[in-house]
Amino acid sequence: MNCPFCSHYESKVVDSRPTDEGQSIRRRRECISCTKRFTTYEKIEEIPLIIIKKSGNREPFNRNKILNGILKSCEKRPVALKDIENIVNEIEKQLYNSMEKEIKTELIGELIMDHIKKLDEVAYVRFASVYREFKDINTFMGELRKLLKEKTDV
């Protein structure tokens, strides 16, 4: 780390403390050459996720879109907001842990459906009807039959 005053390349850390709820570290440094002090911040570098939409367009990952989609499907259902936030956190963690830089919306949709199915069946059917773009009642009934079959198998 070069000193901002004399540009010397060596400094020593005098004090360190966490900031931003543990998301970064504030370091107070002292230059070995001129003995002046300065502050640096250390933060984890996150890999930006790019989402590939069905149309082929690309856009930055936005966790609020997942949150809003799940909230909409859980509307007027006995589902706690904390449970929804846990699902969004889990999906976001899975996406970042995949180490992929570009992720298709299909994968995100399937992850959401897997989590919602365990949370609330009505919310699952609501989400699936929008995500899978049900065209008619037969497609809708097909999804319901699959859900019922899975439930009886368990």
From TrEMBL:
Domain ATP-cone: from-to ranges: 49-139
InterPro entries referenced in this protein's UniProt entry, alphabetically: ATP-cone_dom, NrdR-like_N, RNR_NrdR-like
Cofactor binding note from Swiss-Prot or TrEMBL: Binds 1 zinc ion.
Record GO terms (molecular function): ATP binding; DNA binding; zinc ion binding
Xref: Pfam families: ATP-cone (PF03477), Zn_ribbon_NrdR (PF22811)
Zinc fingers typed unnamed, residue spans: 3-34
Ranges annotated as spanning the membrane: none
Swiss-Prot/TrEMBL GO biological process terms: negative regulation of DNA-templated transcription
Source domain of life: Bacteria
The entry's keywords: ATP-binding, DNA-binding, Metal-binding, Nucleotide-binding, Repressor, Transcription, Transcription regulation, Zinc, Zinc-finger
Cofactor(s) needed for function: Zn(2+)
Main function: Negatively regulates transcription of bacterial ribonucleotide reductase nrd genes and operons by binding to NrdR-boxes.
Family per similarity comment: Belongs to the NrdR family.
Protein's recorded name: Transcriptional repressor NrdR
Species per Swiss-Prot/TrEMBL record: Natronincola peptidivorans
